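Key result, reporting period 2: structure in, sequence out.
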């Protein structure tokens, strides 16, 4: 997968990977179609951060989810 391309497929891939890595319970709250391609770089930064770490504290998870919330289309 070439994540340098700003595509909806890549957004879906990154969101799914983030949800899986964070073991999110309420996965319905974070749907890939809610994210705009305009926020792609920010989403990619979050994805890169999440994929680098093995474990997350509760506060880190909350911060990540909060940041993702700011990227959702309004």
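The corresponding designed sequence is given below.
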């Amino acid at each position: 997968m070439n994540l340098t391309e700003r595509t909806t497929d890549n957004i879906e891939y990154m969101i799914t990977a983030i949800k899986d890595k964070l073991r999110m319970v309420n996965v319905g709250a974070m749907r890939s179609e809610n994210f705009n391609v305009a926020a792609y770089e920010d989403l990619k930064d979050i994805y890169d951060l999440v994929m680098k770490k093995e474990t997350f504290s509760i506060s880190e998870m909350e911060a990540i989810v909060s940041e993702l919330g700011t990227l959702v289309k309004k």
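Residues 8-22 form the longest helix (15 residues). The chain has a mean pLDDT of 88. This case is discussed further under Risks and Mitigation.
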